[in-house]
Structure formats: structure tokens, C-alpha cells
Amino acid sequence: MSRNRSGGSPAARRFTTETKAASKTTELIAYVVAVVGVGITALTVDDDPNFGAERAWLYITILTVGYMLSRGLAKAGSYQPDDDR
């Protein structure tokens, strides 16, 4: 049994993780669906001068940045119980 420096009660253990794993979130599912949708659209209308591979990669990059920001915000302050007990 470990005690804290003041000699009082045992040190508290943390029984939570910061957030859910990314694979367990609806954010990941929405991100993958959106990227696949942009890819299919780019393949379908590739002859259109207003929407081609360059525009598709731009949209995929924007979606990726948005996903990374949403995961960062999710990790900023939410907690989930730790299942490793």
C-alpha cells in the first residue's frame, strides 16, 4: 500500500481514460463516410471542370483537419471509465 508524502491515506489511482478510443466514436464513422462520398463524387464527375481530383483532395484535407480538431476537443475534457481494472 503506497502512502502520499504527508503520511496520510494511500495515493489515489486514476480509473478513467481521457476519452473513448477513436474507433468507438461516431465521429470516425461520419468522417469515413464523408471521405468515401467525396471520393465517389470525384470519380463520378471527374470530367466536370468545377469538381475534379484537386477539389476532392482539398475537401478530404478539410475533412481531415475538422476530424482532428473534433478529436482534440473531445480529449480536452471528457473522461471515460477505464476497463483495465
Description of the molecule:
There is one protein chain. This protein has 85 residues and is mainly alpha-helical. Helices cover 49% and strands 5% of the residues. The protein is built from 2 helices and 2 strands; from the N terminus they run βααβ. Helix 1 (26-44) runs antiparallel to helix 2. It is elongated, with a radius of gyration of 22 Å. 1% of the residues are buried. The model has no long low-confidence stretch (mean pLDDT 76).
List keywords for this structure.
two-stranded antiparallel sheet; 85 residues; elongated
Give the spatial strand order of the biggest sheet: 1-2
The proportion of residues in beta strands is: under 5%
Task: Count the beta strands.
Answer: 2
Q: What is the helical fraction, as a range of percent? A: 40-55%
Overall pLDDT level: 76
Distance between the termini: 17 Å
Unreliable residue runs: none
Cα Rg: 22 Å
N to C succession of SSEs:
EHHE
The largest sheet is: 2 strands, antiparallel
C-alpha geometry: elongated
Count of discrete alpha- or pi-helical segments spanning 4 or more residues: 2
Computed structural class: mainly alpha
Topology:
Layout: E1 16-17, H1 26-44, H2 53-75, E2 80-81
Antiparallel strand pairs: 1-2
Helix pairs in contact: 1-2
Summarize the structure.
Helices cover 49% and strands 5% of the residues.
